[in-house]
Amino acid sequence: MVFSSLFFILFFLPLNLFFYCLMPGLKAKNIEMLIFSLIFYSWGGPKYLFLLMGMVWIAWYSALRIDRYRKSKRKRKQWLTAGCVGLAAVLGIFKYLTFFLTNVQAVVHVPAAVPQIVLPIGISFYTFQLLSYVVDVYRGEVAAQRKYWMLLLYAGLFHQCIAGPIVRYEHVANELEERSVRLPMIGRGIRRFFTGLAKKAVLANSCASIADSLLPATAAELSGIPAAGLWVGMLMYMMQIYLDFSAYSDMAIGMGEMIGLHYEENFNYPYMAVSIKDFWKRWHITLSSFFRDYIYIPLGGSRCSKLKNMRNLFVVWLLTGFWHGASWNYVLWGLYFFVFLVIEKGFLGKLLEKIPSVFGHFYALIVVFFGWILFRSENMGNIAVILKGMFGGNGNGLMDIHTELILKNNMFFMIFAVLASTPIFKAGKEWLLGWYSSRSRLAYPVYVGQVVLMVLLWGLSVLALVGNSYNPFLYFQF
Asked: Which of 235, 151, 183, 155 has the alpha carbon at shortest distance from 410?
């Protein structure tokens, strides 16, 4: 089940909110949310629900042991190690064991069959949440949760357990135990959810359709695509991956706000960045902050020698690549950004601060654009074919009829999709509201307008989803 499915928006979510409102107290409301979350997660395979529950138990029990031995540093560290190793081992087995054995087999030429392990949905996200919880209990930043079911609610809450944001326990601990919801908060949550829904159903899915038609899966097919087709296809993939993932985060944040939970922002218009460092402050913010606080800083961060700082950055970006998938292209993608961040740290960052920001913006877009080629191409041979073809190396010219038709039929949509990745519509809305408020004190036309807009977005989304064959969120696979 995905947020952008008709079943979810027409039945599951309305039923969840209806029964939530009927519950007499916060404990009952939390139990109701837990039941719906377990149903939601088990939709894709009930057996993986037991995996989620088992990993939560590891985090819950190890945190209780850490709390019990608060006065013994040695025992606290032992239970920290046990909890983190246990969680990381489960993630490693399901996500990386097949990749590791396949590469070992290729090197030593062992003919034994490699087990094909299915990746449980959301395991990368909820594993990181549980790791942060165990570490924060060890650091004394949060109290250990005594109730197992409450920790299960935190990790398995259907808003964010599948594809983020990566919610730290310290940010929602108080709200899980005590929260209130006011009408303006519900309104903001509904607006955020419907905005994300339209962003996914209308924009991201259409970008995906264009990208897939211009970027076939095999190297042989890619070699037949003209240069313009490859450039446009990658541009649409660049828009798709942002609109798709940020839409999921919008919907998760919106649903959280509907019931009084506040999740961290996960995106801040990353394609407006003026450097690669700035891009990673704007893209998948909760993942970047996780690696910063639990890997980079504990290793020494930047408060060490240049050589050790280089090592710390290398470890973080190697892990960032691996986190996204058990494939060499993701590792290459992570190290690709490592190289540019090192260059910026060395001299380019200071230069970008001195020149007009438009040049830094152009530089960041180009680097990110070519980075997405690495990210998309799990077949490593496709990378060279795409790069060669973009500059005419495949001998297919600039344009063909197929590409020309796609451009003509989708030109206005593509412009709109690019604009949607910028703050221009948000700025326009704020200007319009400011203009109206300066001329009238009546608030109800604004509320009516927002309601009409939300109904319109809902209707467009439903129409877009009816009969749409492509709908999964990209980040479900990570």
From this structure: 235
- 372, containing H or E segment: helix 357-376
23 vs 40: CA distance, rounded Å: 19
pTM of the model as a whole: 0.91
Tokens representing 333 are 């993608």
In the chain, % of residues over pLDDT 90: 66
- Other residues' Cβ atoms within 10 Å of the Cβ of residue 98: 17
The rounded distance, in Å, linking the Cα atoms of 240 and 246 is 10
pLDDT above 90 (res 458)? no
Give me the residue spans of the domains in the chain.
Answer: 6-179, 185-465
Going by pLDDT thresholds of 50, 70 and 90, the confidence category of residue 469 is low
25: left (phi over 0), alpha (psi -120 to 50) or beta: beta
Identity of residue 292 = R
Alpha helices (H) in 109-178, listed in sequence order: 123-139, 148-156, 169-177
Mean pLDDT across the chain, nearest whole number? 89
Only one residue has tokens 């909890």, namely 83
Cis omega before residue 165 (within 30°)? yes
What span, in angstroms and rounded, lies between the C-alpha atoms of 420 and 440? 29
Active-site positions read: 324
Six-digit token string for 162? 């599948």
pLDDT at 111: 61
Residue 122, C-beta contacts closer than 8 angstroms, at least 6 positions apart: 41, 161, 162, 163, 476
Q: Is residue 63 within 8 Å of residue 144, measured between CB atoms? A: yes
Cα-based torsion angle of the residue sequence 59, 315, 248, 238 in order, rounded to the nearest 10 degrees:
-170
How many residues are listed for the chain in this entry? Answer: 478
Residue 256: closest CA among 20, 420, 4: 20
pLDDT at residue 312, as a whole number: 94
CB contact at 8 A, 163 and 475: yes
Distance CA 172, CA 265 (A): 13
